Amino acid sequence: MDFTIVTASYNYGHYIGECLESVASQEGVTLEHLVMDACSKDDTAEVVAHFPHAKFYQEPDRGMTDGINKGFVKAKGDWVMWLNADDRLKPGALKSFLDFAAKHPDADVIYGGWDYIDADGQYLRSMSALPFDFRILVQQGCYIGSTACFYRRDTTIAEEHLLDEQFGYCMDGEYYARLSHLGKRFVHMPEILADFRLHDQSISQSSLGKRDMTNILRFQRQAAEPRAIRRMYGIKPFKDENLSLVVDGLLYHVYRLKKGLLRVMLNFRI
User: Which domains does the chain have, with CATH numbers?
Assistant: First the structure.
């Protein structure tokens, strides 16, 4: 089997039909689509029932990261990815990916670009895939879209490398940093593979612009996770925490500039 697509879901019946349709319409590949639902109270089950290609698992979980990991453990495809319940694959994305992967037999992780779309599915802007740079990933922040990233199962998940459940926002960035730290090879694919939806209900957007204590604490947790990744995998010239924070700030802007230059160079070549 070529692919396993894992979709963790909770009360996303409004969007999940588009996600399922985008997978069902892929041609020229073999796949399984595992929907790991955390006992949704909306019409998710009814929507999924209209897509016979999908395998529906409904049970409580400890959050999105746990739900994705449950799908990873069940995966049988040569390549595995997680597709958020509100996101979509581009038409023909999987066949294009498979052709590209055949030319890179030593790649453990391959990722492409994505389009941002709004709540109604309308195009907002594109994000091209940049060449992999471990220091940009760790010091400046994750720039690989999980919805357009694929893992070779035999060299990642089959070796029991799963997402860290301690992370609720930046589990993808920590996963990529850990895999790279272990010597896994990342290859970027210069093609837009998916749509990433921006809306108020998504975990990356839910704490923005809201001033109640719950959302302030959520935002602080969201900001803390990248700092934890830098502490684990980043440059650590000092033991003193305050000095480390200063270095973190400087390196953040250095690698932000490097990422910007890479993007300018990529656009110039295009």
Answer: 3-269 (3.90.550.10)
Average pLDDT over residues 159-164: 98
- The helix (run of H) or strand (run of E) holding residue 35 is strand 31-37
Cα radius of gyration rounded to whole Å, the chain: 18
**Cα gap 141→136, rounded to integer Å:** 7
The string of pLDDT tens digits covering residues 47-77 is: 999 999 999 999 999 999 999 999 999 999 9
Beta partners for 82?
6
Who's near 79: CB < 8 A, 6+ residues apart? 2, 3, 4, 97, 98, 101, 110, 150, 151, 152, 153
Structure tokens at 11: 């009360």
Dist CA 53 CA 59 (whole Å)? 20
Answer for the pair 89, 83: CB distance below 8 angstroms, yes or no.
yes
CA distance 14 to 16: 6
Question: How deeply is 86 buried, as exposed, middle or buried, from its count of CB atoms within 10 A (0-12, 13-18, 19+)?
Answer: buried
Can you give the pTM of this predicted structure?
0.92
Q: What is the rounded distance in angstroms from the CA atom of residue 6 to the CA atom of residue 89? A: 12
Token pair belonging to 228: 């934890």
Angle between helices 64-74 and 171-181 (to 10 degrees): 50
CB 4 within 8 A of CB 76: yes
Query: How far lies 137's CA from each of 125, 197, 239, 258, in Å?
Result: 21, 22, 22, 11
* 8 Å CB contact between 236 and 242: no
pLDDT tens for each residue of 136-154: 999 999 999 999 999 999 9
